[in-house]
Amino acid sequence: MSDSLLVLIPARLLAGLYGSLRHVLQDVLVILWDNGLALYNLLTWDLPANAVVPKGCLGAGGVWPPYAPSTEGDSRCSCPALNAMANHGILPRSGRGITFRELNAKIRETYNFAPSFCFFVPNYAANMLCRDYWNDTFDLSDLDAHNCIEHDASLTREDCVDAKDQAKPSERLIEELLASGTGPHGDLTHADLSRMSGKRRTESKLKNGQFSLTTFHKIFGSSNSSTMLTVFGGKIKDLRPILLEERIPDGWQSRVRHRMGLTMAEFNKSALRVELGIREEVWGYPSSAQQKKKM
After folding, report:
1. What is the chain's percent helix, strand, coil content, to nearest 5?
2. What is the pTM of this model?
3. Residue 223: φ, ψ to 5°
4. Is 293 exposed, middle or buried (0-12, 13-18, 19+ CB in 10 A)?
5. Which residues are 109's β-sheet partners?
6. Which residue ranges form the domains of the chain, and what is each CATH number?
7. CB of 249 within 8 A of CB of 241?
8. What is the pLDDT of residues 158-179, one digit of tens each?
């Protein structure tokens, strides 16, 4: 074995170990930070419903910048909430050259997620894209690397095997979702999202020969779904423009009124309630053979 290999191998092992330990320590610190913010929210009063967006920020008082849908050459992704921010100029309208730190700040201001949450998610995206959270930039479409934030069995997008452009909402799926509400005034509930998620996973598994959905992405999908309840209150009148037009309604402000925003601790409770309510995860999904027998 050459001298260079004797140096290279230990160096690579140490670098890998350091990277792993750094990520673990970072996650532990973020969780501790998040729990502290959750406690602060419990001990303080909520913000007024008409003053959730901070003064001086875009959207303060429910007055949002002009809406303009994306045009050819703009970058968009499979997340309606991020696309809406670009369509209103909260993020660059082109959807390009966004810093992860900018994304952190703008999500906090627009949707009132907790600072811990706003760091964790962009940092996760940076790691998935093999980029540096502190210095690098991304385009919104970069997030649609399969099984990054984009995943099969979405409630608002067809699977990527059928729709290569994941920035385009599926009107079929969205209208079906909006029509499924059983809450007051037809608004969505946790049970509705569980039922529709189970239906969508079954449909996708039977139709998509390349279907993949890890446990992580099942939870991630339920997390995405639960924002319809936590941030938008399940209100169909607000969800329709967000999901179909990717437009923030006039006068709208986040339903999250905690002073430190929506923490991961609180968010995870809602996401788990959706995920654990999916019957198909208990009773199993029908196979293609079973489906053919019914036909």
Report:
1. 55, 5, 40
2. 0.90
3. -65, -45
4. exposed
5. none
6. 17-294 (1.10.489.10)
7. yes
8. 999 999 899 999 999 999 999 9
